[in-house]
Amino acid sequence: MVADIYFEYRSRMNPLTIGFYPALSSRRLLPSPEDPDEYVKDPFTMVPGDYANDHTFQMQMDIESAVTRRRYEIMIGQKCPRMKELDGLEFQKEEVWREDHVLEELKNRDLIRTEGKGE
Fold it and tell me: At what angle do helices 101-108 and 63-79 cross, to 10 degrees?
């Protein structure tokens, strides 16, 4: 019996993905070691992404950043077919191939093949 293995990959706030996502406005609070009633900000814990906020951000992205982000998402989707979460957001493979101005630009630049959509 083979277990279903799903992957989560988080590279937000990494030099590769700077500009792909809205800035994080909060951090996870952890109990302070000195006083359990106080909390400290943990700089190494990433809060989950917000789909609505991300969607709004994508609509406002410049075309170069949008094209680069979409290529990144397509590549991850092709190389990791069991991807469940990417950079704190639920990974929806069908959304990567949605028909919009970004996908059209990828086609115009010959950066993607649309036959079979990499599946």
Answer: 80
Number of domains the chain is built from: 1
- Which residue, among 101, 82, 104, 103, has the nearest Cα to 91 in the 3D structure? 82
Is 2 a domain residue?
A: no
> Residue written as tokens 């800035």?
23
Residue 52 lies in a domain: yes
Q: Which helix (H) or strand (E) holds 40?
A: strand 39-41
Q: Could you tell me the mean pLDDT of each successive run of 10 residues in the chain, 119 residues long?
A: 60 71 59 59 64 90 94 92 88 92 95 66
| Extended strands (E) in the chain | 7-9, 29-31, 39-41, 83-86, 89-90
The parent domain of residue 69 ranges over: 7-118
